[in-house]
Amino acid sequence: MTQLPYVRLANDIAAQFHHLSTEDAATGIATHMQMFWDPSMRGQLLAHVAAGGQDLDPLVLIAAERLRTHASA
């Protein structure tokens, strides 16, 4: 199955943070997405996570929770 563009990109970003602790990696991923991703793209990712998060790196799932919390604040 071909990955959705934002899934592939999120996983590529997560790969750059795997050398860090889970906590630091998730923070780094969420910060990167907050700074560089368009709000609609973040919304697509959060909707994908809400629908089960298929094919997403586990670090992206943690980062997405931080994005969701930040978006609702």
Low-confidence stretches: none
Number of helices: 4
Structure class: mainly alpha
The end-to-end distance, rounded to whole angstroms, is: 35 Å
Q: Could you give the count of β-strands?
A: 0
**Using only CA atoms, what is the Rg?**
11 Å
- Mean pLDDT, to the nearest integer, reads 94
Strand coverage percent? under 5%
The biggest beta sheet reads: none
Q: How would you describe the shape?
A: globular
The helical percent reads over 70%
Order of helices and strands: HHHH
What does this structure look like?
With 73 residues, the chain is mainly α. The protein contains 4 helices and no strands. Helix content is 73%, strand content 0%. Helix 3 (39-50) packs across helix 4. It has helices at 5-15, 22-36, 39-50, 58-72.
Features:
73 residues; mainly alpha; 4 helices; 0% strand
Q: In terms of topology, how is this protein built?
A:
Blueprint: H1 5-15, H2 22-36, H3 39-50, H4 58-72
Helix pairs in contact: 2-4, 3-4
How would you concisely characterize the structure shown here?
The chain contains four helices and no strands. The protein is mostly helical and 73 residues long.
